[in-house]
Amino acid sequence: MAIKPLEDRVLVKPIETESKTASGIYLPDTAKEKPVRGEVVATGPGKRLDNGKRAEMSVSKGDTVVYGKYAGTEVEIKGQKHLILRESELLGVIDG
Fold this sequence. Notes:
mainly beta
């Protein structure tokens, strides 16, 4: 199953945080925070403007992005959790 986002939506695979702290303590799943970083898996064609053209997306496949803790809609694809977000819900792109 493949999902192709529509309009200005982005499909993101969350990057899970480490389950071990810097001091070596393992955290249970209940103590972990929701991820706020992820990798862009697919993007839509862009929002349609009033003149009929599409706005260019500012992120592309493979970018690592930061988003709000409770942003987007969770979907499961091939047993893995993904998020579908609007481009405006993204807070930034991580370089490097």
